[in-house]
Amino acid sequence: MACIWRLSVLCSAQGGRAGSKAASLHWTGERVVSVLLLGLLPAAYLNPSSAMDYSLAAVLTLHSHWGLGQVATDYVQASALQKAAKAGILALSALTFAGLCYFNYHDVGICKAVAMLWKL
């Protein structure tokens, strides 16, 4: 998780006004997370475990955070509104990650929950 968080911090350098180097790093980080998801989803199905649950929680939250951040950047024009939207997205992402971790620790976990849904 710390590695993913550090990647997120590096990729969001310069507060949204990233130069070409930071933009390239962000694009690379998004691709790394997407490839991680491609590998994690079948691995979670084949080997459900606590480590897999927490890895999924981290990667899914980061992937969603970056996607919603791009929506805010593209469609919210006013600077003050954009800052408020990004603060809201950060709060939503933090709550999402905390909720998924809570679910993993106090309930069955993401992998087993998906398997239970498929059994219905």
From TrEMBL:
GO cellular component annotations of the record: mitochondrial inner membrane
Major localisation: mitochondrion
Record-linked CDD domains: SQR_TypeC_CybS
Keyword Secreted: no
Pathway: Carbohydrate metabolism; tricarboxylic acid cycle
Keyword Nucleotide-binding included in the entry's annotation: no
Binding residue positions for a ubiquinone: Y75
Pfam families xrefs: CybS
Alphabetically ordered keywords of this record: Electron transport, Heme, Iron, Membrane, Metal-binding, Mitochondrion, Mitochondrion inner membrane, Transit peptide, Transmembrane, Transmembrane helix, Transport, Tricarboxylic acid cycle
GO terms, molecular function: heme binding; metal ion binding; ubiquinone binding
Compartment(s): Mitochondrion inner membrane
Binding site for heme b: H63
InterPro entries: CybS, SQR/QFR_C/D
Bilayer disposition of the protein: Multi-pass membrane protein
Subunit structure: Component of complex II composed of four subunits: the flavoprotein (FP) SDHA, iron-sulfur protein (IP) SDHB, and a cytochrome b560 composed of SDHC and SDHD.
Biological role: Membrane-anchoring subunit of succinate dehydrogenase (SDH) that is involved in complex II of the mitochondrial electron transport chain and is responsible for transferring electrons from succinate to ubiquinone (coenzyme Q). SDH also oxidizes malate to the non-canonical enol form of oxaloacetate, enol-oxaloacetate. Enol-oxaloacetate, which is a potent inhibitor of the succinate dehydrogenase activity, is further isomerized into keto-oxaloacetate.
The name this protein goes by in its record: Succinate dehydrogenase [ubiquinone] cytochrome b small subunit
Organism: Rhinolophus ferrumequinum
Gene that encodes the chain: SDHD
